[in-house]
Amino acid sequence: MRSFYTGQPGTRGRPPEETSAWRSLSRESSPAGEASRSEAAAADGEAPQEEPLSAISPAAWDAVREGMRQMAADSDVLSWLSVETAGKTGTAQQNPSRPNHALFIGFGPYEAPEIAAATRIAYGYSSSNAVEVTADIFRYYFGLESRESLVTGEAEPAGSNGNIVAD
Questions:
Q1: Residue 80, SS3 per DSSP
Q2: Residue 37: what are its φ and ψ, rounded to 5°?
Q3: What are phi and psi of 80, to 5 degrees?
Q4: Alpha carbon 51 to chain centroid distance?
Q5: Could you count the other beta carbons within 10 Å of the beta carbon of residue 101?
Q6: Which helix (H) or strand (E) element contains residue 152?
Q7: Does the reported pTM lie above 0.70?
Q8: Is residue 158 within 8 Å of 80, Cβ to Cβ?
Q9: Domain ranges (residues) in the chain
Q10: CA distances from 100 to 11, 29, 59, 126 (A)
Q11: Which strand (E) or helix (H) includes residue 37?
């Protein structure tokens, strides 16, 4: 079994793609926050039936979304966007003698998401670097910056000085 560390050294678990909680989060969910899954066809050959998953209550899901919204609202990078976004920062240490991997997941607009992004920069030091990349993706997607200005670096937001988001 492969393992990974989450949050604190010594906290071990299985890779997210192998856990049922992660799988339930990755599925489509209803407006009430209930995910669904297709069960295998019954022995009699009938079509699979949708079965709601209740791994996460609507109240818990609302708390996660609100925390992600607050993270983006408090970010010196994401708060400059004219579109309200939400996200979660993180780092992952693979080798103590190398820099951490920089991680960020986010979506927007907050109320009616159109885009979701998961950014990983191998050995990228801080999650703030992944936030900067994702913010550029959002700027381009929402038409806030042109491709040319993002590629040339002319689209740097006011107040941005890098390494703003703490892990």
A1: helix
A2: -145, 155
A3: -75, -15
A4: 25
A5: 19
A6: helix 147-152
A7: no
A8: yes
A9: 1-55, 57-167
A10: 17, 32, 33, 7
A11: strand 35-38
Selected residue with higher pLDDT from 152 and 129: 129
- Hey, what are 32's tokens? 């009430």
**Which two tokens mark 37?**
């899954």
pLDDT band at 154 (very low <50, low <70, confident <90, very high): confident
The letter for the amino acid at 51 is E
What is the edge-to-edge ordering of all strands in the sheet holding 101-108? 86-92, 101-108, 115-121
Neighbours of 85 (CB within 10 A): 25
CATH class for domain 57-167?
alpha beta
Q: Confidence class of residue 151 from pLDDT cuts 50, 70 and 90?
A: confident
CA distance 89 to 99: 16
DSSP bridge partners of 116: 107
